UniProtKB/TrEMBL annotation:
Record's GO cellular component terms: 6-phosphofructokinase complex
Species annotation: Floricoccus tropicus
GO terms assigned for molecular function: 6-phosphofructokinase activity; AMP binding; ATP binding; fructose-6-phosphate binding; identical protein binding; metal ion binding; monosaccharide binding
Binding site for ADP: R21, A22, V23, V24, R25, R154, G185, A186, D187, R211, K213, K214, H215
Protein's name according to its UniProt entry: ATP-dependent 6-phosphofructokinase
CDD domains attached to this UniProt entry: Bacterial_PFK
Length: 320
């Protein structure tokens, strides 16, 4: 395989640019041509495809977001859209594609694979909810962003003797809430994977205030419910004092990636090129126990799901 392409799709994640850079530099090192595709699958179908050089990715590793842009394109779920995308790739002489993104992006790569076109998925999503990998690109940065906010909210929470409900991202996985909550010393961590009881939470808050506790921090993953809704439900179950809500929102997707995310993205991007160089497609790149792995993308998405570390959740309950 001598000519490949790279795209980013779905929600942006810090480290995507580092992954693109690694794909380009590694491909050029292997005497391969590499093309960029703007706006994900929408750009693929539209033919928004162009050559990438080493200069094009210079200084990109430190930048958040994705310079190839991203766009939702539900039409790619249909066979007509998939075949139109493949036709554009073939028109440019492209023999394989690296897809950087989350669950929806992976399903697009799986469809290309089913049509016999070599695609390799690289996990780029802050939610850390992709099967076949311990960590996804952008997760570490998002957690650090959330921890920074939690630390700041603790200061104002103590100053006013308040309870804060802090909503973080994570629709189907509570990994951001769990890791940021433990790192930030949250009193309660609410995630989709574990049931909770409002009455018990209220009781613990009230007991804390009786002991002289000056603040409470409750971290809620958006997949459970919105922060405002959670706060309203909490009030219905008892007096929790002065209650405020902070919704972190899209700030978790932005900012310069951490060193860990830059290294992870670089390793995964280069590994994806190695796979395509050896004419291996239909694979999902991951890291397990700090070692890079490649799994069959169809089998991975069909038969596996991401598992949140419930031992870590148990620890959060024991030390909160």
């Amino acid at each position: 395989m001598k000519r490949i392409a790279v795209l980013t799709s779905g929600g942006d994640a810090p480290g995507m640019n580092a992954a693109i850079r690694a794909v380009v530099r590694k491909a050029l090192h292997e005497d391969m041509e590499v093309f960029g595709i703007n706006y994900g699958y929408a750009g693929m179908v539209a033919g928004d495809i162009f050559p990438l050089t080493a200069k094009d990715v210079s200084d990109k590793a430190s930048q958040g977001g994705t310079f190839l842009y991203s766009a939702r394109y539900p039409e790619f779920k249909e066979k007509e859209g998939q075949l139109a995308g493949i036709e554009q790739l073939k028109k440019h002489g492209i023999e394989g594609v690296v897809v950087i993104g989350g669950d929806g992006s992976y399903h697009g790569a799986m469809r290309l694979t089913e049509h016999g076109f070599p695609a390799v998925g690289v996990p780029g999503t802050i939610d850390n909810d992709i099967p076949g990998t311990d960590y996804t690109i952008g997760f570490d940065t998002a957690v650090n962003t959330a921890v920074d906010v939690i630390d700041k909210l603790r200061d104002t929470s103590k100053s006013h003797i308040r309870t804060f409900v802090i909503e973080v991202m994570g629709r189907g996985a509570g990994d951001i809430a769990l890791n940021a909550g433990i790192s930030g010393g949250a009193d309660e961590i609410i995630i989709p994977e574990v049931d909770f009881d409002f009455d018990e939470i209220v009781s613990r808050i009230q007991e804390g205030y009786k002991r002289g506790k000056k603040h409470n921090l409750i971290v809620v993953a958006e997949g459970v419910m919105g922060g405002e809704e959670f706060a309203q439900e909490l009030k219905k179950h008892g007096d929790v004092g002065d209650l405020r809500v902070s919704i972190l929102g899209h700030m978790q997707r932005g900012g310069a990636p951490t060193a860990r995310d830059r290294v992870l993205a670089s390793r995964m991007g280069a590994f994806a090129v190695d796979l395509l160089k050896d004419n291996k497609g239909g694979l999902a790149v991951g890291v397990e126990g700090e070692k890079l792995v490649a799994r069959d993308i169809i089998e991975t998405l069909t038969n596996h799901k991401h598992q949140t570390d419930l031992d870590l959740y148990k620890l959060s309950q024991e030390i909160s």
